[in-house]
Amino acid sequence: MKESVKNALRSAVVVIGALAFGHLTLQLAFKPYLEKTQQQMEALQNQEPQSSESSESNDEQFDDTHILMSDEGFTNLDDS
């Protein structure tokens, strides 16, 4: 009986260690992308709110805009 409890505890420790290692691996692998996304979200939130009239005109403007996402951020293809 004691042997089965010992094996169960060992298995639990191995599973918890594997989950922790996997979590750290994902954090390190996606850190640059997560930081860029967070900076872009903060920049969008810090923009001044616009009136309802200007937001309607912006909606029409974005319908015809072609945007490319790259490692450096967003690039408007119409400006090039």
TrEMBL record:
<feature type="compositionally biased region" description="Low complexity">
    <location>
        <begin position="45"/>
        <end position="55"/>
    </location>
</feature>
<keyword id="KW-1133">Transmembrane helix</keyword>
<keyword id="KW-0472">Membrane</keyword>
<dbReference type="InterPro" id="IPR038944">
    <property type="entry name" value="OEP7-like"/>
</dbReference>
<keyword id="KW-0812">Transmembrane</keyword>
<feature type="region of interest" description="Disordered">
    <location>
        <begin position="38"/>
        <end position="80"/>
    </location>
</feature>
<feature type="transmembrane region" description="Helical">
    <location>
        <begin position="12"/>
        <end position="30"/>
    </location>
</feature>
<protein>
    <submittedName>
        <fullName>Uncharacterized protein</fullName>
    </submittedName>
</protein>
